């Protein structure tokens, strides 16, 4: 059998060892250190952001964002319905209630129509959400020109989950900067990795200071260990930050490679009964993963396609199963894109992600392309 083609393998460029060795030579391998500080600074400069905080993972960053928005037990937080569970688990950590907002077909991201209805109903009931978590799904920017004015009208803070969207832009603004707070992930399958890690992006030093305090066990300033609040062990290690610094040096190359991969798929699979992810006006996605929807009536559905690719040792993944369909959230409130039209369920029923690793060679990508074509014969 031919070697396995992975969905989204990490791409180690060799620059990482310089920073890792520096951490070892200074005997600073634990939490914090020079790599952490410089990784924060370098990411801040890359994004043109005001403040950045390196944390242990993207979910930790999102948890800190939710906590900063003063989410308490019984509160509600609106969240994109079509996403990975890490986007909404932090709501549960604070014993609050998620309200899921459907996607739209124009962007695959949060539907402005559904969001506006949900906020209207929430205001009418006298219980607006503490925050709205908007996900840039698969690196596709959400429609912020429509979404942000709605959130501003109701004075609800926005948390941008850009875990999959580092390197993406909307109207020339990098993803991660649209919300009051933004978050990134550097998990091993992301466009750059720090093995594990995340970043919180803030517009004010007040947010950054509080998050750093909570993320280091909420230790008060004193000679002894003094604590008045619940804290968390969420700061990034100096080793992981070193990996991230090395990876950041080739981020633009990786984004370009992802775009080339997506372009070739679109060209070579254009005559098949599939639809590629949409690109809204003003969006410049990083194409973290290439996503296809198999049209109704095709010879194969997404499950058969996944199985067929697996026979040829090619890894693919189903489209994210919407959160309102998950057993964990069976009692949660949900707003469809339009009455009688649940977009997320449709996307899940027909969609899959195909290999998009920046390590993938053209020969390997042609193998994927030819295998997909063969599945339709």
Please give the structural blueprint.
Elements: H1 16-25, H2 34-47, E1 51-55, H3 58-68, E2 76-80, H4 89-93, E3 97-101, H5 112-124, E4 131-135, H6 144-153, E5 158-161, E6 169-170, E7 173-174, E8 181-185, E9 198-202, H7 205-215, H8 238-248, H9 251-268, E10 274-276, E11 283-284, E12 290-294, H10 302-311, E13 317-318, E14 333-335, H11 343-350, E15 351-354, H12 362-375
Parallel strand pairs: 2-3, 2-4, 3-14, 4-5, 5-8
Antiparallel strand pairs: 1-9, 6-7, 6-11, 8-9, 10-12, 12-15, 13-15
Helix pairs in contact: 1-8, 2-8, 5-6
Question: What does this 3D model show about the protein?
Answer:
There is one protein chain. With 377 residues, the protein is an alpha/beta fold. It folds into two domains: 16-248, 3-Layer(aba) Sandwich (Aspartate Aminotransferase, domain 2); 251-375, Aspartate Aminotransferase, domain 1. The chain contains twelve helices and 15 strands. The protein has helices at residues 16-25, 34-47, 58-68, 89-93, 112-124, 144-153, 205-215, 238-248, 251-268, 302-311, 343-350, 362-375, and strands at residues 51-55, 76-80, 97-101, 131-135, 158-161, 169-170, 173-174, 181-185, 198-202, 274-276, 283-284, 290-294, 317-318, 333-335, 351-354. Strands 1-9-8-5-4-2-3-14 form an eight-stranded mixed sheet, with helices on both faces. Strands 10-12-15-13 form a four-stranded antiparallel sheet. A three-stranded antiparallel sheet has the order 7-6-11, with no helix packed on it. The protein is globular.
